[in-house]
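2024-03-11 09:14:02 INFO worker-7 job=invfold-0412 stage=load source=structure_tokens
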């Protein structure tokens, strides 16, 4: 069983912190809880996930960890899966396993996360988008569909805006196209986070298990606080110019506002209603 710190102790004094930690923990719990012994999964998907090819790509001054599930030589469009803050590519297994049954799937450990190791400098969505495209290029992939969760969702949007010829279809889960798309209380809670608040949580435990720099977790906390306090925004015009089809997914208890997600979805619908330019 995963033990969490008693959030109720400071929920009354710091409701935003509790909300932010609960939001972050929800994804980590899904990734950390093992499948039941009698869980039924397609054999091909399980085999593909267990036979992942792993490695590092030298991109933009750092070594980014990646994993490839499936055969890149197949004629199926690859799917790039981008994780959220305090997660890793490995944590996205619930998405990877079913998709890897029918197409190659690539995961990346973003800057400062997972096996990529200690964050160096500030995080930005533009930089992480460029990192992802560079990893695809290192693998000889001209274009991929993209699925991004939370931080990975905003990174996916940045990829489609900055590198539209490299992105096919995309799925944005709990991602924002601007800083003000987040619920203010969640951002306020993130601003108050400290490394000590993560003691014993899956976020800290998994970081220390995977990272080549296990003592650098406080640096990651600082980097996440910084990116979530730094204004960014992709305009409606930029979103409408994205050529690929886009699905926007939001949960009832999400950190992104419904109005923002609805606006992003409307822009995506307007974009795909136009005649589309074929990219070879």
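2024-03-11 09:14:09 INFO worker-7 stage=emit residues=280
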């Amino acid at each position: 069983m995963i033990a969490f710190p008693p959030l109720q102790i400071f929920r009354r004094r710091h409701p935003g912190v509790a909300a932010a930690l609960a939001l972050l923990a929800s994804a980590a719990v899904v990734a950390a809880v093992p499948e039941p012994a009698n869980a039924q999964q397609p054999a091909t998907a399980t085999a593909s996930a267990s036979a992942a090819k792993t490695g590092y790509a030298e991109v933009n001054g750092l070594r980014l960890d990646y994993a490839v599930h499936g055969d890149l030589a197949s004629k199926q469009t690859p799917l790039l899966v981008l994780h959220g803050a305090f997660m890793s590519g490995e944590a996205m297994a619930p998405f990877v396993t079913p998709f890897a049954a029918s197409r190659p799937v690539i995961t990346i450990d973003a800057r400062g996360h997972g096996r990529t190791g200690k964050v160096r400098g500030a995080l930005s969505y533009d930089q992480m988008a460029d990192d992802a495209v560079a990893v695809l290029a290192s693998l000889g992939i001209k274009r991929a569909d993209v699925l991004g969760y939370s931080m990975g969702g905003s990174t996916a949007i940045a990829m489609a805006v900055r590198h539209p010829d490299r992105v096919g279809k995309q799925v944005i889960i709990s991602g924002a196209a601007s800083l003000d798309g987040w619920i203010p209380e969640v951002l306020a809670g993130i601003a108050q986070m400290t490394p000590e608040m993560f003691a014993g949580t899956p976020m800290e435990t998994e970081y220390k298990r995977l990272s080549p720099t296990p003592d650098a977790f406080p640096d990651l906390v600082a980097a996440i606080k910084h990116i979530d306090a730094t204004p960014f925004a992709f305009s409606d015009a930029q979103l409408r110019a994205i050529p690929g089809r886009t699905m926007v997914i939001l949960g009832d208890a999400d950190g992104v506002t419904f109005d923002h997600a609805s606006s992003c979805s409307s822009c995506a619908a307007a974009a795909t209603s136009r005649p589309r330019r074929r990219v070879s």
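2024-03-11 09:14:09 INFO worker-7 stage=report msg="The radius of gyration is 18 Å."
2024-03-11 09:14:10 INFO worker-7 job finished
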